[in-house]
């Protein structure tokens, strides 16, 4: 990590704008270690960059962790609801020569989210990269009543993701990167909404509280079997991802207002149609290909001023 042949004043990574802030932190840690200030002691762990990927024991999330293990200069945490499956995923990466760490996380469980929050705060003093990948989808021909599908899907995809952001965004360090994995289905679902709903979801001034109210209204409208009459599309997954995309726009706006000088970039993205348990074997992309855009956003260089508050697919900003 440390080049012992560097001459004095030859190169200072802390003053070079091309040098990633994550690498600056890991460089500092390496120097401390070399100078015998301690090896990963509680005192120096706050200097180690850390990335967290939710829902990452398989599929796209697992591929994102794999890519970050190769490219991110710090600790990468694979998370899963089930500790056994999470540890199995970590072991699989170890067989590939990659080092990932595990922490249990169920985004439907606020206590679980807060346990991760407290762990990151105590051990690292914050967070550098957060990829909100965890999500669910019912199969097209699932016989579960639509109202149940709506409530369950939004509980995880929207409300769970929102809870993770509420607890972890305050921990994100300057030059941090946040990626909310959404879907192009959010765009098609938006087009399926009434003009009134489209106007609300596209508003540049919509608040998080107003968005939460709309998401709750969708769930309640499905229970009353009036959701289509009220202007909603007949897709719970699509509406949940509308929520994720709009939430990302709101969060980016709030970061601009409250933490402008911290240069944090937050975006939503679509990984594409990926061969996973959720999308099925006929999908056109491999998990590693699906991970490309989320990883691109997670590793935006320190001198980048965008994208921020955007929705991307194939590393390209899409019109919302």
TrEMBL record:
Keywords from the UniProt entry: Cytoplasm, NADP, Oxidoreductase, Phosphoprotein
GO molecular function, one term: carbonyl reductase (NADPH) activity
Compartmental location: Cytoplasm
GO cellular component entries: cytoplasm
Keyword Ribosomal protein included in the entry's annotation: no
Primary site of residence: cytoplasm
Pfam families according to UniProt: adh_short
Entry annotated with the keyword Ion transport: no
Enzyme Commission number(s) from the entry: 1.1.1.184
SUPFAM superfamilies to which the protein is assigned, alphabetical: NAD(P)-binding Rossmann-fold domains
Top EC class of this enzyme: oxidoreductase
PROSITE patterns: ADH_SHORT
Homology family: Belongs to the short-chain dehydrogenases/reductases (SDR) family.
Name listed for the protein in its UniProt record: carbonyl reductase (NADPH)
Organism: Calidris pygmaea (Spoon-billed sandpiper)
């Amino acid at each position: 990590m440390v080049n012992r042949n560097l001459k004095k004043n030859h190169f200072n990574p802390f003053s070079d704008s091309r040098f990633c802030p994550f690498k600056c932190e890991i460089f500092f840690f390496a120097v401390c270690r070399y100078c015998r200030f301690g090896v990963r002691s509680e005192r120096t762990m706050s200097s180690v960059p850390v990335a967290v990927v939710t829902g990452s024991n398989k599929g796209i999330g697992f591929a994102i962790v794999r890519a970050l293990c190769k490219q991110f200069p710090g600790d990468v945490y694979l998370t899963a609801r089930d500790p056994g499956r999470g540890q199995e995923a970590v072991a699989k990466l170890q067989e590939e020569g990659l080092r990932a760490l595990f922490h249990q996380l169920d985004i439907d469980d606020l206590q679980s989210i807060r346990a991760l929050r407290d762990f990151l705060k105590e051990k690292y003093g914050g967070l550098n990269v957060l990829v909100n990948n965890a999500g669910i989808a019912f199969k097209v021909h699932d016989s579960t009543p639509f109202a149940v599908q709506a409530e369950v899907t939004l509980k995880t995809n929207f409300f769970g993701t929102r809870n993770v952001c509420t607890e972890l965004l305050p921990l994100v360090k300057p030059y941090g990167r946040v990626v909310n994995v959404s879907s192009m289905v959010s765009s098609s679902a938006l087009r399926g909404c009434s003009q009134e709903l489209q106007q609300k979801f596209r508003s540049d001034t919509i608040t998080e509280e107003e968005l939460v109210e709309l998401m709750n209204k969708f769930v309640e409208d499905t229970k009353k079997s009036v959701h289509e009459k009220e202007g909603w599309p007949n897709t719970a997954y699509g509406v949940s991802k509308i929520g994720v995309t709009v939430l990302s726009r709101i969060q980016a706006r709030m970061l601009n207002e409250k933490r402008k000088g911290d240069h944090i970039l937050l975006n939503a993205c679509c990984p594409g149609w990926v061969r996973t348990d959720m999308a099925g074997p006929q999908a056109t992309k491999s998990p590693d290909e699906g991970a490309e855009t989320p990883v691109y956003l997670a590793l935006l260089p320190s001198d980048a001023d965008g994208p921020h508050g955007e929705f991307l697919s194939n590393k390209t900003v899409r019109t919302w």
